[in-house]
Amino acid sequence: MADKETKQSALQSLRNWGENSVPPTLLATLITAQHARPFQALPMLFPPVLLFSSYLNLSGYQKDAAGITAAWSGLYALLAMRRKHQIRQKFGARGIVRGASLGLCVVNVAGCGLAYAFGRREEAEE
Fold it and tell me: How many separate domains does the chain show?
């Protein structure tokens, strides 16, 4: 018999994405790259929260971290979608970083939302 490889469904892959600690860190990096120079105060409120979410994930609170990441990624996407850009600005370096961060926001909202909705908390053993 041939080796059977388990194939994950798309929903399971999204949920695994939401339970990972790398996506909020990557999004925080992209947001910082966009808004650190020139400094913009409102968007720069998001990276510390996303990094704290990554810390929570590594500390064993995957469900809570997924909820924070989904909520703050959605808020950043709403904030970033308000800005209008001309077609020339969409294909420069800043436009590509902006597009990548918005795409990552969408995937984070979907994946972390699934991880938060269907995740389990580890019960404290007595």
Answer: 1
